[in-house]
Design a protein that fits this description.
Structural class: alpha+beta
Helix content: 25-40%
Strand content: 25-35%
Shape: globular
Radius of gyration: 15 Å
Number of helices: 3
Largest sheet: 4 strands, mixed
Distance between the termini: 35 Å
Strand order of the largest sheet: 1-2-4-3
Order of helices and strands: HEHEHEE
Length: 110
């Protein structure tokens, strides 16, 4: 059988800007884009979350892994950015044995 999946090799901002709308987006992207872009982390993530919000259908959801429970700076930044861009945000911690600590996960709704 043939697969209906299409592979894309674009920057996420470029893809989302020119792509379709979605009911659900799963993000496993780096939270430190300053390592591969010429933008400040806060600016890049703010642009990304705003763009994701505009690409979600009404009632759509962004689900993402955020960071370790010990990364307090990232937790604060993610909470602020998601809560300012989405109508409802839920956070959960789950223990990840491979990292030997809890990680924060978020669901943000359009």
């Amino acid at each position: 059988s043939s697969s209906s999946l299409t592979q894309h090799s674009l920057d996420v901002l470029e893809y989302l800007s020119s792509g379709p709308s979605f009911d659900f987006i799963v993000s496993d992207l780096t939270l430190h884009p300053e390592s591969f872009t010429n933008r400040l982390r806060e600016d890049y993530l703010e642009s990304l979350f705003k763009l994701i919000r505009t690409k979600l259908e009404a009632g759509g959801c962004l689900s993402m892994q955020c960071c370790s429970e010990f990364d307090k700076n990232s937790i604060k930044l993610i909470e602020e950015l998601l809560e300012s861009n989405f109508s409802k945000v839920e956070f959960r911690y789950h223990y990840l044995p491979s990292f030997a600590c809890r990680w924060l996960f978020a669901s943000a709704y359009a």
